[in-house]
Each structure stands twice: as C-alpha cells, then as structure tokens.
Amino acid sequence: MTDVSIIGAGRLGTSLGYALLKKGYKIKALSCRTISSAEESKEIIGEGIASIDNIQTARVGEIVFLCLPDEEISKVARVLAGSDINWSKKYVFHCSGLIPSEVLNPLRDKGALTASIHPIQSFAQKKTPPAQFENIYFGLEGCTEALALSQKIVRQLGGHPLILQPEDKALYHAACSTASNFFVVLLEMAVSLLKQIDLQEEKALQILLPLVKGTLHNVKKFNIRASLSGPVIRGDQKSIQKHLEALRNFPPYYETYTKLAAQALEMAKGEGKISPQKIKVLKNLLEGK
After folding, report:
1. Cα–Cα distance list, 249 to 192, 245, 255 (Å)
2. What is the pLDDT of residue 268?
3. Is pLDDT at 1 greater than 80 in this prediction?
4. Domains of the chain by range and CATH?
5. How many percent of the chain have pLDDT more than 70?
6. Cα(284)–Cα(198) distance, rounded to whole angstroms?
7. 62 φ/ψ angles, rounded to the nearest 5 degrees
8. CA distance 4 to 60
9. β-pairing, 63-66 with 49-51?
C-alpha cells in the first residue's frame, strides 16, 4: 500500500509528499485551492495529478492525507464521505495536532481507517528537505489499524511516534505552540528592544542568535532547569529592578517580562538556588509591591 493522495498540498502537505516519495511511496494526486498552487506543489514533489477537486484527488489514493487548516478538516471529511468513493480499507490521516481523529468519523463510518498524524516540526516553505522529518516526534491518535500504519510511516521518515489520547491533544498542542510559536514572539520582543537603541533588525538578530543557540545547546546537553541563567536565578534584585525601570515605557513587554520572571523564580525556588528571603523580595518586586 503505497499510493498516496494529499488534500491541502501547502507547506506541510508538499513537504510530506516529497519526503514520502523519497521513501518509495507514489504520490498519485494532490489538491490545493488554486490550480497554480497545485501545479507548484506537483513540480516540487515531482509527480502526481494536480487538482482543485478534493474528491477526485482522494479517489486515487490508498492513503489520503488531509493537510488542512483545523477549521476545514470536518467540512472536507463530510464532503468526501458524501461522495461515491469506496472508502473500505482506505487510510485517511489528518495532520492537526489539536483536533482529535473523531472528526473523521463520517469517513470511518464509510469503512475508512482513520487517525491523526502531526509532525512536531515547523515548515516555513513548500520546498522543505526530507531531512526535516528525521529525528522528530509525530503525535499520533486514532484507530488501531491506522495507528499501526502511521507508526510505520513515521519510522520510514526517520521520526519517532508519540501515541496520544484524544483528550490530551489540546495540552499537547498548547505545549508545541508554546515551544515554537511563542519562542518566535519572544525573539521578536527581544529584537524590538534592541531596535530601541538604534540597532537595525538584522543586526539585532545577528547579535541574539548565538545566545539563543547557546541556550538550546545547554538545554540539550544538560536539562531545562540547569540551563536557566540570568539575574532571577542569581537572586539579583538590582539587575531586575533596572530591567523593570527600562521596560516601563513598553507596557506589553513589561507585563511579559514580569510574568516570565515570576515563572523563572518558581523554577529557581524548585532548584533551591535562592534563599526564601530573596524569593520573597523578588516576588514583591515583580508584583510591584
């Protein structure tokens, strides 16, 4: 069973299709909202019928991937289930990290084997090297037969399966979003602060990236708590006070700083690296007392 159809051949769908092609799968068809986008994806992958017709795309695949925005999965599943396609023993995977596979029940009721398969990775463009799937985890959830195939696919791509329960997907996805999306937000915040001292954005990013990379290296080599450095973990009241004074002219950043510093203080407390007296002083400082 190697014939694959991809509905929603955007950044993830195209990247996944190309990676599967390199592992011996046949990309039979792919669909996008516009034919120009579908043709672009076909050119990147190297094969498959480009289309804007989801039903015809799904018809030719033994394995159908729905690489769609969360709000579109249910609608597309119902449309596909209402078609004349024989869904018996077809595998259907959606790629949302948040939505449970039960959203595919209209297809499951027609005989499809369904699950969700969510690569814990960021895809910035359609033309992503297959190596982007290597050594990453994939959140998997669904029926037994579909889970078995999804685990096989994940391992073929060089990844690691993570079996999830439907009720755990919201927390799982919130964790992924925090680590990826909000990391970008924090980096943008740091860059914006450096721009206030007349540094260009490109220069600011150039200055900060080695620091970011060094921190991630420490996290990987040691652990999260051991990698926490800075004035909070040292109990440095004067430095934190100066930070707060500098940030008062930037209320959103001030609020973010105090909340993150409070979380860092809890980490320091758990590690026993600061005396109870200093913890109380810093907590009052962050709360504006």
Report:
1. 13, 8, 11
2. 87
3. no
4. 3-164 (3.40.50.720), 171-286 (1.10.1040)
5. 100
6. 33
7. -80, -30
8. 8
9. unpaired
Location of structure tokens 């109380």: 280
Continuous H helices in the chain = 11-22, 35-45, 54-59, 70-81, 105-108, 144-156, 169-195, 201-221, 231-234, 237-247, 251-271, 276-286
Helix ranges, 85-132 (H) = 105-108
- Whole-angstrom Cα distance, residue 160 to residue 166? 19
Q: What is d(CA 262, CA 255) in angstroms, rounded to the nearest whole number?
A: 11
Q: How far is CA 180 from CA 49, 108, 122, 160, in A?
A: 33, 32, 8, 19
Using DSSP's 3-state secondary structure scheme, residue 237 falls into helix
Q: What are the structure tokens assigned to 80, written together?
A: 């596909």
Per-residue pLDDT of 148-203, as tens digits, reads 999 999 999 999 999 999 999 999 999 999 999 999 999 999 999 999 999 999 99
Q: Are 248 and 254 in contact (CB under 8 A)?
A: yes
Q: Are 84 and 76 in contact (CB under 8 A)?
A: no
- The torsion angles phi and psi of 273, rounded to 5 degrees, stand at -95, -10
Residue 33 has phi, psi (to 5 degrees) of: -70, -35
CA dist., res. 186 & res. 165, Å (int): 30
pTM over 0.70: yes
| Listed residue (22, 45, 42) closest to 158, CA to CA | 22
Alpha-carbon gap, residue 236 to 222, rounded angstroms = 23
- What is the residue whose two structure tokens read 């159908």? 64
28, 48 Cβ separation under 8 angstroms = yes
71 φ, ψ (degrees, to nearest 5) = -70, -10
| pLDDT score of 275 | 87
> Which residues have C-beta within 8 Å of that of residue 125, sequence separation ≥ 6?
11
For residue 285, the one-letter residue type is: L
